[in-house]
Design a protein that fits this description.
By secondary structure, this protein is α/β, with parallel strands linked by helices. The protein has six helices and seven strands, in the order E-H-E-H-E-H-E-H-H-E-H-E-E. A seven-stranded mixed sheet has the order 3-2-4-5-1-6-7, sandwiched between helices. Helix 4 crosses helix 6.
């Protein structure tokens, strides 16, 4: 087995910052069996291409579970010897908002599921607070919800890494030895 991660690792960054690829490398470096929980849905051609690109980049050795809304069930099934990557919390939150779900309750259930997960968990998310104030109520509501979710994940994580232009910046904790 390679260098291990803390129980929860949180990787965040802007869109197209390289955060997903970085998180994949972190999880793969552990040498644990790898589970990829995908929250994206191919609702248009652009997203379908993005999903295929992510799958090709990951390559073999990953078990993929598509879970656009329910993260609790796959997290409960993760074994103690496994590492799971949730990519990404931002799309999961967007999916929930589209169903008009109770976001506070969903967030609490996610935190509880992560804490009870037997394996190592790595969550990818977008940092959305650095831009301008959105001009509509829905976008502002999303920005607040994403900020709250990110803060909750960061508070619970043993390792928090922000990825900027493909480069990792450790915000909390220490990278495991030999990590990318």
């Amino acid at each position: 087995m390679g260098p291990d991660l803390p129980h929860l690792t949180f990787v965040l960054g802007a869109a197209a910052s390289g955060k997903s690829a970085y998180a994949e490398r972190l999880v793969a470096a552990t040498g644990r069996p790898r589970i990829y929980i995908a929250t994206a849905e191919a609702r248009d051609e652009e997203m379908r291409v993005k999903i295929v690109t992510h799958q090709a980049r990951r390559g073999a050795g990953w078990t993929t579970i598509e879970a656009p809304l329910d993260l609790e069930t796959p997290l409960a099934a993760v074994g103690a010897d496994e590492a799971v990557l949730i990519d990404c919390a931002t799309l999961w939150l967007s999916n929930l908002m589209a169903t008009e779900a109770d976001l506070t309750n969903a967030e609490s259930r996610l935190f509880h599921s992560i804490s009870r997960c037997a394996g190592r968990v790595c969550v990818v998310s977008n940092e959305v607070g650095a831009g301008v104030v959105p001009d509509n109520a829905l976008a502002r509501r999303f920005r607040v919800a994403q900020g709250r979710l990110n803060q909750g994940l960061a508070a619970r994580a043993g390792l928090v890494v922000q990825v900027v232009a493909g480069l990792p910046l450790v915000l909390k904790g220490d990278l495991p030895g030999g990590a990318a």
